Structures are given as C-alpha cells and as structure tokens.
Amino acid sequence: MFGRTPLVYDVSLYVRTAAGRQPIADLNRYVHGLRSPGSVRKLDAYQSADEVQEWHQRLVQHIAAARRDEHEYVVEITWLRHFDGDRSRQWTLSCTHEHCTGRAGDAHS
C-alpha cells in the first residue's frame, strides 16, 4: 500500500588520469542513463544505500575487467536524501582490472 522512500544521490563515473577526470568511452555499452564524466541525480527505490553502492561497485569492476587496461575507473556517490544518517555523505570506489579500493568521506572535502 505504501511505497518505499526512494534514495536520492548523485553519481559520477569516470576514468582518473594525470590530466584529471576523463569520460568512460562507450559507457552506454555497459549501462543506460548515466553520463561520464559528469554526474547524474538518481532517485531510486533500492532497499538500502549498501545495495546502491554494491550495484555501482559491480558496474565499475565489470568495466575495468572488460577493458583490461591500466586505467583507473571511478564511481563517486554523494548521498542527498533518505540515506543512513551514520553513513558518510560521499563514497568513492576506484578499480583497475586487478583490484578495487574504496573510501568514504565528507562531500566536497
């Protein structure tokens, strides 16, 4: 009868290089509705913020593994509304084809 309160967040996907943020070429090959390197505001009915982060982690891991190059693929999520209050507002994960590293921190820090 009652709908789930949607999570609201901004998500950015990009390649980190010495020159800064670069677009992920052919991003639409992997996912529709996202841009690179710009951010997109999302309003999704996921079960939890963890589920959102896990989905985006799998996406970035898949892109890095498919490319098998030495680039670092990054997802950044900034939580805007309806996220766990104990959670940091900013979450970043970067992956190469060999490994991933993540960090949480305050937005715009």
Core attributes:
109 residues; alpha+beta; 6 strands; globular
Number of helices: 1
Class based on secondary structure composition and strand pairing = alpha+beta
Domains, number: 1
How many strands, what sense, and barrel or not for the largest sheet?
6 strands, antiparallel
Residue runs with pLDDT of under 50 for 5 or more positions: none
Q: What radius of gyration results from the CA coordinates?
A: 14 Å
Quaternary arrangement of the chains shown?
A: single chain
Q: Could you tell me the number of beta strands?
A: 6
Element order, helices and strands?
A: EEEHEEE
Mean pLDDT: 85
Q: Quote the beta fraction.
A: 35-45%
Shape estimate: globular
Cα separation of the termini: 40 Å
As a percent range, the share of helical residues equals 10-25%
Description:
With 109 residues, the chain is an alpha+beta fold. The chain has one domain (7-105). The protein has one helix and six strands. The chain has one helix spanning 49-67; strands at residues 7-17, 20-22, 39-44, 72-81, 90-95, 100-105. Strands 1, 2, 3, 4, 5 and 6 form a six-stranded antiparallel β-sheet that branches. A hairpin with a 2-residue loop joins strand 1 and strand 2. The longest helix is centred in the middle third of the chain and has 19 residues, at 49-67. The radius of gyration is 14 Å and the shape is globular. The N and C termini lie far apart (40 Å). The mean pLDDT is 85.
